[in-house]
Amino acid sequence: MSAVTRSILADGRELLYFDDAGAAQRIPVPDTRDLAARPEPGELRYDELTGDWIAVAAHRQSRTHLPPAEACPLCPSSPSFASEIPDPDYDAVVFENRFPSLGPVLAQLPDPLAWGETVPAAGRCEVVSFTSEHAGSFAALPYQRARTVIEAWAHRTAELSALPGIRQVFPFENRGAQIGVTLHHPHGQIYAYPYLTPRAAQLAEAARRHFDATGGAQALLGALLERERADGARMVLEGEHFSAYVPFAARWPIEVHLVPHRQVADFAGLTGQEKDELAEAYPRLLRCLDALYDTPTPYIAAWFQAPLDPVLRPAARFHLQLTSPRRAADKLKYLAGSEAAMGAFINDTRAEDVAASLREVMRTAAR
Ligand SMILES: [Zn+2]
């Protein structure tokens, strides 16, 4: 088991060390930086036109943008530079974002919030650093470290889900400057939202309808997984506890769903054996993406966890949606009129062809 050690940064933010199994007991180094007080939270506005909440985070404009390695806030601290992690070395860490879109306040949102009114942007944004090494990627992590990060995701999911007013916990990774990454150091984020996000709501409602139509006997994602496995044309990998496929109606030029075989709500609900397999299968999928072209593929790894809403939760199944806008070696898909304005995706690739390419690189480059 990986070990968790809690600490507090100079401005009061929480920092948690997740050390690989077998590591020596950690005694955290105190954060002696003279940090400014945490910024006031942004605000939330309710859009009556769509029913969506909009977070306004104007204070984030001053956040760190692609710093050089010697000023990286995610590298361990050194005698010449005090980073966000006071220790001279670490395995994986999670800490509260210094420039959060949501939080640090926690509150139930009013329902509804009138036009012209705002409330503080409640919730919590955490940063997950996967390694102390500045150059690298999740795909290149050793098995034991990937396993530790999965344990960190499970720990944070359980803890954030229990905070007042939180309705959805979303771990994700943006990889690649092409899709807006502001730090090169391998890391992900966790957003704990005080509302259900539009896309999570859309999926959760479809899942609930299917669940009800089958008398509570079947999860929609379970049914789709069965169909994909039976058909086979879009399968990428099949394990004992997880399988991955390019979904029949993929939206993105590269899109893979990694789905557990069992009905499970989130990281916190996974068994040890499931986490063990995930720690091998997930980095393997990422290596496949990187092996498709001569240069690393930018991606968004979005972990869909069941909403905390007790009506929606039983029908929703935990899974990963791994997507990339890359449609050729030197071409990215941009969300333009149809996608950005209408939410109507036009995909330049066929799911079957993408799956065949991924199976091919899995056989050769990405083992
Ligand atoms: Zn770094």
Could you give a quick summary of the protein structure above?
This protein is of the alpha+beta class. The chain has helices spanning 143-161, 198-213, 220-231, 272-291, 337-342, 351-363; strands at residues 3-8, 14-19, 43-47, 52-56, 92-96, 119-120, 124-129, 168-175, 187-193, 235-238, 242-245, 254-260, 299-304, 319-324, 326-328, 331-332.
Features:
binds zinc ion, zinc, HIT family, subunit A, globular, 6 helices, alpha+beta, three-stranded antiparallel sheet
Structure description:
This protein is an alpha+beta fold and 367 residues long. The protein folds into 2 domains: 193 residues, HIT family, subunit A (2-Layer Sandwich); 165 residues, HIT family, subunit A (2-Layer Sandwich). The protein has 6 helices and 16 strands. Strands 1-2-5-7-9-8-13-14-12-11-10 form an 11-stranded antiparallel beta sheet, with helices on both faces. Helix 1 packs across helix 4 and helix 4 crosses helix 6. The longest helix is centred in the last third of the chain and has 20 residues. The model has no long low-confidence stretch (mean pLDDT 95). GO terms for molecular function: nucleotidyltransferase activity. Pathway: Carbohydrate metabolism; galactose metabolism. It catalyses: alpha-D-galactose 1-phosphate + UDP-alpha-D-glucose = alpha-D-glucose 1-phosphate + UDP-alpha-D-galactose.
